[in-house]
Design a protein that fits this description.
Order of helices and strands: EEEEEEEEEH
Keywords: Coiled coil
Number of strands: 9
Organism: Hexamita inflata
Strand order of the largest sheet: 1-5-6-7-8-3
Mean pLDDT: 52
Low-confidence stretches: 1-91
Number of helices: 1
Distance between the termini: 91 Å
Protein name: Hypothetical_protein
Length: 154
């Protein structure tokens, strides 16, 4: 395992370059530089460590990490937007850390805006469906009341 360094439980990451790949693709990784290809992430990377391998979980996308490669394990989508990410290390200068934080925060803000827009659209669609159902129920109730009233009159 020459040059291999254990991962910190939580790391913030910096996006460099966007790539796209599908299921079962192996991507090379360099342990010494602590660089890794990984999917676009909504927040901090969650890293679950055990003696055999590390499982890296990011939203619905899950990758199995060995010392030599990152293997696609599961995703709800067959094509994932991936970014080359660099771990924050103690070797990074203060300026680099500030720049990295800024870049990462901008990336997160864009992801959050995207999610909020999607959620708002979904809520509006649900509201429309609820209104349509309410109208149908009101119509059925008024029809039933008319029928009952007719029965009482007769």
């Amino acid at each position: 395992m020459g040059g291999y360094k254990p991962f910190h439980p939580t790391v913030r990451v910096l996006c460099f370059q966007k790539v796209v790949f599908g299921p079962g693709v192996y991507l090379s990784r360099c342990a010494q530089l602590q660089e890794i290809w990984f999917s676009a992430c909504m927040g901090e990377l969650q890293i679950v460590d055990n003696s055999l391998s590390q499982i890296i979980v990011c939203g619905e996308n899950c990758f199995k990490l060995s010392n030599s490669s990152v293997k696609f394990v599961h995703s709800s989508d067959s094509t994932i937007n991936c970014f080359k990410l660099k771990y924050f290390t103690s070797q990074m200068s203060s300026t680099e850390k500030i720049e990295a934080n800024s870049a990462f925060d901008s990336f997160l803000e864009a992801k959050i805006d995207q999610n909020e827009k999607f959620t708002t659209e979904k809520l509006n669609q649900m509201e429309e469906k609820i209104n349509a159902v309410q109208k149908q129920v009101q119509f059925l109730v008024s029809t039933l009341m008319k029928m009952l009233n007719q029965d009482v009159v007769e």
